[in-house]
Amino acid sequence: MYAANQTSVSASIPRAMQQTAAPVISLTGAQQNELLRGLSREELIDLFVHLDLVPLEAGKRLFDTGESMEYAFFPTNAIISLQYETEDGGAAEVAVVGREGVVGVSMYEAERANCSAVVQTSGYGYRIKSAVLRQAFFSGGALAQQLMRHTSSLFAQLAQTVAGVRHGSIEQRLCRWLLERLDRSLSNELKVTQEMIANMLGVRRESITCCAGKLQEEGLIEYRRGTVTVIDRHAMERRAGGCYSPA
């Protein structure tokens, strides 16, 4: 469908970039991000010349609380954790973003980040200067609508996180945490550690070990060191209860 357009756009990309980037920079590649896929062909082509495909390695900090956001990132297969960090070094996850969305949107020039963005699952994403994205947003069209829709979904996710902390059990919150990543993963296998989960949920590691062990005994997951495989997703959703809504 987009073959002719891909040829014309790719021709404007330096040959060195085409040779070193992996996966290949293309309209089809950009459309792995669902927000970008929601744009019209014309809007995506206009935006495409401003997009850079970049590797997003686990642990990489895209920006920290209080920093200006020079770039926004549209993940394709990476998963990014948005975290609120306290002055004493503590952190808790408030939302997670994958191929459905974008992080680092800055709607005015002096805007500062109100949370930190940390890559949790390695992959790739398309990077764009915040100033360019801001200008495209104020031009209206499908991009503005997609960004507003995504912002609304982030608020809903944040509200659900708060409600889960207040009313959900640790087991429910663990199920939700795993399901949120499963929604944004290309397989049912997740590269996570119990320590990472405990830190993001703000609970003791022993509590996660106990809950994960119970879920494994009941056949919902299989846990090996550093890897969780979700075996029965439907049972996980039932166990999460009101703490979880699909992304």
Q: How would you characterize the overall build of this protein?
A:
The chain is 44% helix and 20% strand. It contains eleven helices and ten strands. Helix 8 (170-183) packs across helix 11. The longest helix is centred in the middle third of the chain and has 26 residues, at 142-167. The protein is globular, with a radius of gyration of 19 Å.
Strand order of the largest sheet: 2-6-4-5
Give the SSE string. Answer: HHHHHEEEEEEEHHHEHHEEH
Q: Which regions contain 5 or more consecutive residues with pLDDT less than 50?
A: 1-22
Return the structural class: alpha+beta
Q: Based on DSSP secondary structure assignment, what is the total number of beta strands?
A: 10
The major pleated sheet works out as: 4 strands, antiparallel
Q: Name the beta content range.
A: 15-25%
Quickly count the helices: 11
What is the 3D form?
A: globular
Which value, in Å, is the CA radius of gyration? 19 Å
How is this structure best summarized?
The protein is of the alpha+beta class. It is built from 11 helices and 10 strands.
Distinctive features:
247 residues, alpha+beta, four-stranded antiparallel β-sheet, three-stranded antiparallel β-sheet, 10 strands, globular, WH-like_DNA-bd_sf, cNMP-bd_dom_sf, transcription, transcription regulation
What topology emerges from the helices and strands here?
Layout: H1 3-10, H2 15-20, H3 27-30, H4 34-37, H5 41-48, E1 52-56, E2 61-63, E3 71-75, E4 79-85, E5 91-97, E6 116-121, E7 123-129, H6 130-138, H7 142-167, H8 170-183, E8 189-190, H9 194-201, H10 205-217, E9 221-224, E10 227-230, H11 233-240
Antiparallel strand pairs: 1-7, 2-6, 3-7, 4-5, 4-6, 8-10, 9-10
Pfam family, one: HTH_Crp_2
Keywords: DNA-binding, Transcription, Transcription regulation
Protein name: Helix-turn-helix domain-containing protein
